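Box 3.1. Reading complex inputs
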Amino acid sequence: MNDLIDNDIDEFEMPDPRLVRSDDIGDDERLIVDIEGFEGPLDVLLALSRTQKVDLKRISILELVKQYLEFVNKARALRLELAADYLVMAAWLAYLKSRLLLPEEDNEDELSAEELAARLTYQLERLNAIRERAAILMSRNQIGRDIFPRGAPEPVIVTRHHTYELSIYELLKAYAEHKTREAVADIRIHKRAVYTLDQAIDRLSDMLGLALDWTDLEQFLPQNIKDQQMAKSIKASMFSASLEMAKMGKADLVQKQIFGPLFIRGRKQEEEEDNG
Amino acid sequence: MDKQEQMRICEALLFASDRPLSSIALAEQLPEGSDPDAILAELQQKYEHSGVNLVEVAGKWMFQTASDLSFLLRKEEEKERKLSRAAVETLAIVAYHQPVTRAEIEEIRGVTVSKGTLDVLMEAVWIRPLGRRRTPGRPMTYGTTEDFLVQFGLNSVKDLPGLAELKAAGFLDNVNTSRLNLLGDEGPDEEQPDLPMDDDESSSEEQVIS
Amino acid sequence: MDKQEQMRICEALLFASDRPLSSIALAEQLPEGSDPDAILAELQQKYEHSGVNLVEVAGKWMFQTASDLSFLLRKEEEKERKLSRAAVETLAIVAYHQPVTRAEIEEIRGVTVSKGTLDVLMEAVWIRPLGRRRTPGRPMTYGTTEDFLVQFGLNSVKDLPGLAELKAAGFLDNVNTSRLNLLGDEGPDEEQPDLPMDDDESSSEEQVIS
């Protein structure tokens, strides 16, 4: 454990070799970029946050954003090929920076800038924590490296004898079944239960006339269908029918979230005129 | 380093090594002036009555399971298994149609017969190769064994009920017997005697589980 | 059979194997009514100060060289699988977060997981697919293997170092896998039990004495 704490301190006090800063050099030369050495934007952010030499919880996000944007600009100036995720992170951080600097408006739909910053800190802390655990794990005594199992194991030799259970009845039955199959060679293909698209459109048209407001498409499905095959077919056809009717301008469709319920509303000719 | 520690080191080295070690090789890991032979002698004594012994083989040393316990490393397993449907049907076809080749079994069953199916039946010693047929390709023919007759309490394969009897016994309900080729199923066909086999058979598999 | 003899049998079986054996597997070799756990405890004590120790890993038992002798036995060379940083980190994430999907690993590391990374860990038999999660897309989840526990001398994943601290700090909470979760405000997915795998799961678990 002591080793580990030492390591930690080392890492805090030593600048990340991939990010060399030197005060002797001019401003634009300060950040030496080794993009190859990093594993994605979070890795860069974590390395940069270390240069602040404070607890991750207390890092200055604004400073971090500045450093990151500097890093990305530097990399671009050197014409290093930056992967898209570095750029996405840069764009997001620029956005965060502007939010942090501007007075916050109350907006229920959006997270506050502080909340966003806290999330970024959380992600950095989480990555940092798992890295520390990885280091502890790898420094454990490992089999084959520090500790060894028996070098010349003596194998257990298993001789297997199989016995099979079979009665004359089963033997004869098998032969009879074989003969039965041979004799009855008619092939029957079962008719699949299908709810046709035409049926679905008819049903939906009729029912949409009755419903006044947005209604879950599920409500229009015929109920109490026992046959699974049929139930699936109904669902598929009714869905197709809803699309078809939307295309024909006879209905509106709304789905608020992925895999969420599909809402449908009839669109009457006169309504269109009223609204239009 | 005290002697106890030297013993521990030798113990670990011998345990972890994948081959026997000479006392010279062990001495290299011990402090100058140690006496590996004395340590080995002491270790040997320590393990004398254990489940594992330290033995000297060709001038080198290794741990080995005590000889009176070597039975532990050799196990006989009696496993009862259920035959697959394909195997039962194949067995029935061999019984009724012997001597029969694999191609013929496939033709009768209408599906390919995997090698595993025949292997299982041979392992159970219920069918055996009878010899090669004197036809192009010299295909192997199969028939049933003594064990097969014993298993099913038959005196000979001729005692197997014919189709008409099967029908009478209710095995072939719902089948129009006239559609069955009765003639083809009345016991084994007369055939030229098959050639004797050259290769020998082995039945029990040996498997090393490490 | 006296207790001495039962100890010798367990000793021989454990010594002969380079993999851990369960007390159940050992009990099968002992007379009815024996107490393998008591025997194991006694054996463990017998070897406590030897160069070889009896240790409990992955809920099973095996002999290993004493950890304080690693200075002597340590093999730096060839065999050491040099894992990439990405692989080490991925292994830690799988270990602490299991069952975990690939998308979640990517979320935590902030970078896509290259195909080779999981392959390397699966080839080393340290991680394995656990089954599919009951969420849209039915993503495969991963977890660690028995070999992983043996490799790092852990009795179970509950013994992972610092697990409680990670949990207390909230770092093991459900990983939001909307790649840029910084932007979105999706609540964490409801963790649903993972589906069992359809195909046979890795056999490494039941490979001992069968």
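In summary: Confidence is low (pLDDT under 50) at residues 182-192, 198-210 of chain C.
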